[in-house]
Amino acid sequence: MPPIATEIRMREVPDPIIIIQDRDMGIYLPYEALTAGSSLHGYGLVIHDNNLLFMLDRYFYHALWPTGRVVYREERALRLPREYIHIRELVSDLRRFSIQNAKVEVFGRFVRSGEPVHLVGRIVEFYEDEGKVISNITVETEDGERHVVGGWNASLEDIEAERIILFE
After folding, report:
1. Has this prediction a pTM greater than 0.70?
2. CA 50 → CA 15, 20, 21, 105, 168, distances in Å?
3. Separation between Cα atoms, residue 147 and residue 137, nearest integer Å
4. Which has more pLDDT, 131 or 107?
5. What is the chain's alpha carbon radius of gyration, rounded to the nearest angstrom?
6. Which of 11, 29, 78, 119 could form a disulfide with 17 if both were Cys (CB 3.0 to 4.6 A apart)?
7. Stretch 44-54: mean pLDDT, rounded?
């Protein structure tokens, strides 16, 4: 059976259920929607708004996830290639496994023009601020071009990555 999660956290207080399938569709279900007798019983939102999904993603990663108690964490070796949709998970793995000069493939868009981009290169730097709000990598292509790659809604970087594949 394939693993469902590499880490599971639990909180003692009731929280909403947030499911983000991709950057185009997600579900928000208030905790009360699962409680019989609540006026919200059976209520949930199917969301097709990228900005609202981004806010829910940030709420989950900055308010709910850090305050949860770890009940399961897979002790794992890094198996490559590995695909990432969140740049902060990539940066965490780079730090955790002391990876340097790794080959990556990036799929995304240029921040300024919005044009799609696909590039292959090596990670020459990575950065994450103390609050884990800003995470990025610098990729150098074979021809020597350097691009700073950020995650969802990147604005400071050159590229907003939708998908990154780490090879070696």
Report:
1. yes
2. 22, 10, 11, 24, 32
3. 8
4. 107
5. 18
6. 29
7. 90
DSSP letters, the chain, are ---S-SEEEE-SS---EEEE-SSS-EEEE-GGGGSTT-TTTT--EEE--HHHHHHHHHHIIIIIGGGSEEEEE---PPPSSEEES-HHHHHHHHHHTT--S-EEEEEEEETTT--EEEEEEEEEEEEE-TTSS-EEEEEEETTS-EEEEE-TT--SSSEEEEEEEE--
The answer for residues whose C-beta is within 8 angstroms of residue 114's C-beta and 6 or more apart is none
Spatial separation of the C-alpha atoms in residues 27 and 44, rounded to whole Å = 7
Residue count of the chain, please give it.
168
User: Mean pLDDT across the chain, nearest whole number?
Assistant: 89
Q: Determine how many CB atoms are found less than 10 A away from the CB of residue 155.
A: 9
Distance (Å, whole) CA 31 – CA 41:
9
Of 161, 165, 145, nearest to 111 (Cα)? 161
